[in-house]
Write a structure and sequence with these properties.
By secondary structure, the protein is α/β, with parallel strands linked by helices. Helices cover 31% and strands 19% of the residues. Strands 1, 2, 3, 4, 5, 6, 7, 8, 9 and 10 form a ten-stranded mixed beta sheet that branches.
Length: 392
């Protein structure tokens, strides 16, 4: 595949970075960059920056297509990690005549990256691009989990035009369906219809309110560790920390919290694509949102560097194994604790395991879930997964 056909090269002069910054250890001096007539080799690349300036289906957020170069300029000025892996910046994706044209082309590119163990870091554009991201896994016939950090669910319905605030219903309704689980982190109740909350419950999806997440951010780590795709809507961050989003509001995650969540995503060996959407430079003040997104990406790389790949479905040793019987032996839950990272998982029992769900029988959890089971209570995330695999 000639990837250069899908991208517009970076024009260094337009970013100012190369004339103003000569410090050798800046990220911008260590990226494998697609410039005019020179497409980089991806043979050893682990992460790829992909700008997708698509906004045709943006919901009331025209101007978000200008985001990629604004973010790129700020990211280049950060100092690199001492052990930074090979990272490519492939420039901006060539947008199709219609949004659907863009989705189809992006599906091909993202599936290529996934097959070659390259994690695309997609800088949108509007969040409907998550739909194209999902299509890449459908193309590969992989059953996946999507985690969205967003103030809203973006479910929508089939009677309304497809927009960035209604992309999820199009994923849910596709047949055959390759979405095993969807989790929202940071929704704000006054932005979410009660019927959508009930639908999330009926589908056994996970939803964590902003207040719950902020009370103890570490509780979000197992949700993120279970993700194949992480999609971040910048409206999940409060306006005072990120003014460059038309849908931002007074409440939301702060800059430190969103960077911590991004680092969790980087550490997650399962995660194979990451998208950041809805940043609109038109509303940004002193490039604060662009700077924050650059730092979000920096923390994702920071987490990626220390990935352990120590889940019990990957390696069979280096674990403590705990058996907990509940409700007079009606249930038995097997817990695993890594001797390497100290992280926890729990196993979903099944007599005849469905090969399509093979990656979903071991569920990331926390010490709190183990303690819950020891009190003879069924952990919520274990029961939710069991109901998806084996309807009760």
């Amino acid at each position: 595949m000639d990837l250069s056909l899908y991208f517009n090269p970076i024009i260094p002069e337009e970013l100012d970075f190369f004339t103003a910054n000569e410090a050798n250890n800046l990220i911008g001096n260590h990226l494998l960059m697609y410039t005019e007539g020179r497409f980089p080799s991806l043979e050893k690349v682990k992460l790829a920056l992909v700008g997708v300036p698509e906004e045709k289906n943006a919901h009331n957020n025209m101007g978000c297509s200008e985001a990629p170069d604004k973010v790129r300029k700020q990211l280049y000025q950060l100092y690199k990690h001492p052990e930074m892996p090979p990272i490519a910046d492939l420039g901006n994706f060539k947008i199709g005549k219609t949004a659907n044209d863009t989705y189809i082309a992006l599906e091909n590119i993202v599936s290529y990256f996934i097959e070659n163990d390259i994690i695309p870091i997609i800088i949108g554009g509007s969040q409907d691009i998550t739909y194209a991201n999902y299509l890449a896994y459908e193309h590969l016939q992989r059953v996946i989990n999507i985690v969205s950090i967003d103030a809203r669910f973006d479910i929508g319905n089939e009677t309304l035009p497809f927009k960035s605030n209604s992309y999820l219903h199009k994923i849910i309704l596709r047949q055959p369906n390759f979405l095993f689980n969807y989790s929202n982190i940071g929704y704000q109740t006054y932005f979410v219809d009660k019927e959508d909350i009930e639908l999330m419950d009926k589908l056994y999806f996970d939803a964590c309110r902003l207040g719950e997440a902020q009370e103890d951010l570490i509780d979000c780590e197992p949700l993120i560790r279970n993700a194949d795709v992480l999609t971040l809507d910048m409206s999940a961050i409060r306006f005072s920390d990120s003014p460059g989003c038309k849908h931002a509001s007074p409440n939301g995650f702060n800059g430190k919290e969103i960077c911590q969540l991004s680092r969790y995503a980087g550490v997650n060996h399962k995660l194979s694509s990451f998208g950041i959407y809805e940043y609109n430079p038109t509303y940004d003040i002193a490039d604060q949102s662009a700077k924050l997104i650059a730092q979000i990406i920096w923390y994702f790389i920071d987490g990626f560097i220390i990935r352990q790949k120590d889940a019990p479905d990957i390696i069979k040793n280096n674990f403590f194994k705990y058996f907990v019987s509940l409700h007079d032996n009606a249930y038995e839950i097997i817990f695993y604790k890594s001797k390497i990272s100290g992280l926890w998982w729990m196993e979903i029992p099944s007599e005849n395991k469905n090969p399509a769900y093979s990656r979903h029988y071991i569920v990331p959890c926390s010490l709190k879930d183990y303690e819950t089971a020891c009190r003879n209570e069924i952990p919520e995330r274990w029961f939710q997964t069991l109901k998806k695999i084996k309807p009760i």
